[in-house]
Amino acid sequence: VDLDMFAGTMGGKFTTIEGLLRQAHDELDRRAPFFAGDSATAEKRDRFLRFLARLDAAANGDVLPLTLVLDDPMAHSYVQNIYAPDPDPNMVTEDYERSFEQNEELGLNDISVD
Fold it and tell me: Residue 59's pLDDT band (boundaries 50, 70, 90)?
């Protein structure tokens, strides 16, 4: 689907992957008039509508395999493992140290703990 979203784009959610994809579709469909409205060129409008159709197909489970990457430097995301306590064969979890740039975005580089 090739969709990048930034922190806070959709607020806090407790939902499924399908729910995330549907909300992204609905938000883009409602709030992006310059891509699909009368001010958009025919080429832009067609490209945007094709993208929305791909997003809808992914939400319907018609795009498989589907890879979802949650890059969450604040660790606020949770994906339930339905195989617990065994590992989920379809999920990879990676812990990492935040980059300087991520810390800068979050305002953590300027914090003084003295």
Answer: very high
Output the pLDDT for position 4: 84
Residue 73: closest CA among 28, 109, 48? 109
Question: How far is the C-alpha of 33 from the C-alpha of 82, rounded, in Å?
Answer: 39
d(CA 104, CA 85): 36
CA distances from 91 to 24, 34, 59, 79, 111 (A): 22, 36, 18, 9, 34
- Dihedral angle at the C-alpha atoms of 84, 70, 3, 17, nearest 10 degrees? 30
pTM of the model: 0.75
The predicted model gives 47-66 an average pLDDT of 92
Residue 112: alpha-carbon gap to chain centroid: 32
Q: By the 8 A CB rule, do 35 and 45 touch? A: yes
95 C-beta neighbours (distance < 10 Å), count: 5
**What amino acid occupies position 59?**
A
